[in-house]
Amino acid sequence: MGANVLEQNRQKVSLELDLKGLACPLPLLKMKLALKQLEVGQLIYVETTDAGSWTDFHKFSEITGNSLVNAEALAESYHFIIKKG
């Protein structure tokens, strides 16, 4: 997915988390706690630097009722938009 998709969805985000510098499993755990604050259908934007979060966030969306709307792996960080299901 391209930057346009990220920017379009980022404008609709209800909560943003900067989890850069945290090691696995903290990015996933902190995102899960923050997601509990949202209503169904709301979006959360998360930035991480932990390579394990790429797999963790994809797997999380597969096994829960939450959707991974956008995921981007950049040179030094990972960006995710998750829709609460």
Brief digest:
With 85 residues, this protein is of the alpha+beta class. Helix content is 35%, strand content 28%.
CATH topology: Translation Initiation Factor IF3
Record the strand order, biggest sheet.
1-2-4-3
Low-confidence stretches: none
Q: Would you report the number of β strands?
A: 4
Based on CA atoms alone, the radius of gyration comes out at 12 Å
N-to-C series of helices and strands: HEHEHEE
Q: CATH superfamily name?
A: TusA-like domain
What is the helix content? Answer: 25-40%
SS-based structural class?
alpha+beta
CATH architecture assignment? 2-Layer Sandwich
* Major sheet size, sense and barrel closure: 4 strands, mixed
Separate helix tally? 3
Shape: globular
Distance between the termini: 21 Å
What is the mean predicted local confidence, pLDDT? 90
CATH class: Alpha Beta
Q: Indicate how many domains the architecture comprises.
A: 1
What do these coordinates show?
With 85 residues, this protein is α+β, with helices and mostly antiparallel strands. It has one domain: TusA-like domain (Translation Initiation Factor IF3), CATH 3.30.110. It is 35% helix and 28% strand. The chain contains 3 helices and 4 strands; from the N terminus they run αβαβαββ. The chain has helices at residues 3-10, 26-35, 52-63; strands at 15-19, 43-48, 67-73, 78-83. It has a 4-stranded mixed β-sheet, with helices on both faces. β3 (67-73) and β4 (78-83) form a beta hairpin.
